[in-house]
Each structure stands twice: as structure tokens, then as C-alpha cells.
């Protein structure tokens, strides 16, 4: 089995990586040469990780979260997703109880250490961290396919970028299989074995895309409903992601 945790770090931020942004595939801005240059920068960076928008930006064209860096880069992708979902849940719980919202050093802070020992801690995930990471990667790729943009030509371009990213054969096979597969919301939802995991899957899906197209908005709404997430919690996740992007 490939190291899904490491692959997620390359998507969302790995220890020692330098921040970098991905081009938006829909805008038509940024030549493929720029993307390949980013890939070479990734390969040459000591520690082998980029901030959110690195490998995901190269592959999926996501522009979401390119400003998320700092501690998230140090701690990696699992901690980032868990921290965002945990922050959202804390805000949701406070609202439900009529209590003050938890305070962080600044609005964009992601509490990366706070989930440890809680139901949001990836270390306690059923099946282990690797299985947890696979569920998040699958959710992100599914979200990226929601607008129907990843056609055969786009797949070929993405596969070429994957070949440049220095991944092992199993990681490449996983990514290519997920990209080729039809959109399968049932598969994404089935991996949510706890309410906390469901919130984390939604947070990862939201990180993967900018829901500025009707199909993407509809996908996230359907995903939230299928994951049985309270709309108020979904709003908190959206707020946490936006704050992290802006912070």
C-alpha cells in the first residue's frame, strides 16, 4: 500500500515545504510550462511538500487555499483538515449552547494541535491514518470532478503532471484510477465512519474546489446532506476554510 498520508501532505502541505500556488484550470491563465515549473520546484524542495495548492494545484487546477501555509505546512495535510473541522465544530457547538465562540490568535488560525486526543484526531481514525488519508484524497478528487471538467483530454494533461511529480507507482495508480473513475458520491459517503470523519471529509472536499459554479455548489450541498451534516455545521466549515484562506 502506498503512503497516502505523505501523498495528502503533497496535496495539502508537507513538513519543510515551501508555499506555492496552482493555476486555475478554468481561467485559461498560466501556461502548462508554468505548472511543470512548479512541479520541478516541488521535486527540488527539501522535505518534499508544498502548501495547499501545490500538487493539488498542479493536478486539479485548484486555487483554493493557496494562502494557507505557515503551521499547516509544518504539520501536514491530515492536521490541516482535522484542525479546520475541529475549529468548525467548536464554533458550531458554542452556537448551539449559546456560549462565546472559541478565540484564536487571529481569525485565520487553524488549531492544528487541538484535535489531538479527540474524535477529530487522525491518529485515532478507524483503519489508521493511511486509510483516513485515502478517504480525504478520494473526497478531494471527487469534488474536483463535480463540474464535469475533467474530460479525457484533461485527464491526459493531469497524468503527464503526475508523471513529473516523482510519485511511486502505487500512488500514481491510485490517482489515475480515481481520476478515471466516474463520480461516485456513494463511495465518498461510505468512508465516513463517524460524524467527525464526515465533517473532515466535507472540509477536505471544500478545500479542493472554489464553489463558484452551480455544479460545484450542488455537489457540496448533496455531499453535506448525504453525510448528514447539520447546515449550521456546514456554515461553520465554510467560515473556517474562508478564514484560513484569508488569514
TrEMBL record:
Q: Which residues form a coiled coil?
A: none
- Disordered as annotated region, ranges: 16-38
What superkingdom does the record give? Bacteria
Q: Which InterPro entries does the entry mention?
A: TerB-like, YebE
The record's SUPFAM superfamilies line, in alphabetical order, gives:
TerB-like
Pfam families for this protein = DUF533
Q: What is this protein called?
A: Tellurite resistance TerB family protein
